[in-house]
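W.,

You were right to be curious about this one. When I first looked at the sequence I had no strong expectations either way, so I just let the prediction run and decided to look at it fresh. Below is the sequence, 212 residues in total, followed by the output.
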Amino acid sequence: MSKGGSQLTLFPEPITAARRSRVARTRMFFALWPDESVRLALARAAMVIPPGDAARASWVRTERYHLTLAFLGEIEPRQAEAAERAAADVRVRPFRLQLDTVGHFEGPNVVWIGPQSLPPELTQLKAELDRELLRFGLPVVAGKFTPHITCMRGVREAPDASPVRIDWAVSEFVLVKSVLKPGMSRYKIVKRWPLVMEIGKLDLDMPEPDPG
C-alpha cells in the first residue's frame, strides 16, 4: 500500500469547461456487489416492506442492488484509469456483513437495507479507498458514510418494517459504470479487486540456525 508522499495525478493540464466538452465522460462508482444468493435474500426482504404510498412506490430491480463505497460522478477515461490504480493499492481482509436494518432517506424518498453496525474491515476499506482516490486527484464525497442498498424508491415516510437478517460474505469490491440507454440505464462492472488475507512476512533478521 502506498503511504505518504505527494499527491499523484494523471492530469497534467487543468480540467477546464472547454476540455470537459471535448472528452467523453462516464458515470462511475466503487461498490460492494452482492452475489446471487444475497440478491435473492434482499429481494425477498424488500417485497414484504410496506410500500406506503403505493401509487408512488417502486421496487429497485435486483440486478441494480449494490452498496456504494465511493461515488466518482461523471469522469474522463484517464480519471477512470487513475481510479483503477488507486483501487490496486487497497489492502483489506474479507469480512462478513450483517444486513439487519431497514432504513429510509427522507430527501430522495428511498428505502434501503443495510448493517446496523459496521465491521472494522468495512470501515478500513472505505477509509483506504478514499485516501487512495484523493492521492490520485479523484473526487471523494465528504460526509458520514451510511452503507446501504437501495431497494425501494418513491416512499415519502419511513416504513414500519420487520427486522431483516441477511449474512453477506464480502470477498471483493468493484468499479462500476452506468451505461445510459433511452429511458433507462444499466450497471456494468468494469473491474474487480479481491479482498485478501494478510500474509505474514518473513523476519529477515532472524539468526541462522546453529549447524552444531
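Here's what jumped out at me. Residues 1-15, 200-209 have pLDDT under 50 and may be disordered. And, maybe more interesting for your project: The two ends are 41 Å apart (CA to CA).

Coffee later to discuss?

I.
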